[in-house]
Specification:
Elements: E1 5-9, H1 12-29, E2 34-37, H2 44-55, E3 65-67, E4 70-72, H3 83-92, E5 102-103, H4 112-125, E6 129-134, E7 156-159, H5 162-168, E8 180-183, H6 186-191, E9 194-199, H7 205-211, E10 231-236
Parallel strand pairs: 1-10, 2-3, 2-6, 3-5, 6-9, 9-10
Antiparallel strand pairs: 4-8, 7-8
């Protein structure tokens, strides 16, 4: 079992500052490598800081390559609330990253298995993930790797947990089908050279308490980070029980 690099910060802003610092350091060392950034409320602070660092000239996001972590099956970049729409709004658009530098799931495709293989191939061709930035669900999911998921998966399609479906409604102004997801797998996370997890607020306490416990279990996928060779956990004090 590997030791976790845990940092507990006073609040969301200082947590985002600390996580961003590590990501920027990695970009400086590997400016043309492959990166994966989760969507959602928690990582957005880090993404906005990265865009600011890009605009100031501290890093050049346009040299790097990116792969989408996950997507709601049936949605694409034109759908408000989709993961790709989020990335375009918070990262690809503001940093003016060319579409040839990012790979995403065509989640409206009738060939979703092919989409999984295409993502796997894109990652393989870029020599794997340099860094993956993750949030964690209240049920412990990473990306759309839900409780009970196999830790041996690369990209795959999955039935979404009821918790994920319910929490996910906040991203949408209208009702959409949230029963299935397509996602990079736990294997991708473990194979990334660096994994960063950001989590804040009391609602993440249970997931974080499992991560900081001794047991690695597929019922709490976040616990797999204990097996990662270079995982960094940034949380605010409210996420700590």
């Amino acid at each position: 079992m590997n030791a976790l690099n845990l940092k507990v910060l006073p609040d969301y802003e200082t947590m985002s500052d600390a996580a961003t610092e590590l990501v920027i350091e990695t970009f400086k060392q590997a400016p043309e490598s492959l990166y994966c950034f989760a969507g959602g409320d928690t990582p957005v602070g880090t993404l906005r800081r990265l865009v600011a660092a890009h605009k100031s000239g501290e890093i050049d996001l346009q040299k790097a390559y990116f792969v989408e972590l996950d997507e709601w099956v049936g949605l694409d970049g034109d759908d408000e609330g989709s993961c790709l729409n989020y990335l375009k709004t918070e990262l690809f658009g503001p940093a003016e990253i060319d579409s040839s530098h990012y790979h995403y799931f065509h989640a409206k495709s009738t060939e979703l298995e092919g989409e999984c293989r295409a993502a796997d191939l894109f990652i393989k061709k870029r020599d794997g993930l340099e860094l993956i930035l993750l949030g964690v669900g209240v049920n412990g999911h990473l990306g759309f790797n839900e409780p009970g998921v196999s830790f041996e998966n690369h990209a795959h399609i999955i039935d979404l947990d009821s918790t994920t479906q319910n929490v996910g409604q906040k991203y949408f102004t209208k009702e959409v089908d949230r029963t299935k997801g397509i996602t990079l797998g736990i294997k991708h996370i473990l194979e990334a050279k660096t994994a960063i997890l950001v989590a804040n607020g009391e609602k993440k306490q249970t997931a974080i308490s499992h991560l900081l416990g001794e047991k690695v279990t597929d019922e709490w996928p976040v616990t797999v980070l204990r097996k990662h060779d270079n995982a960094h956990i940034f949380i605010d004090k409210l996420a700590l029980v």
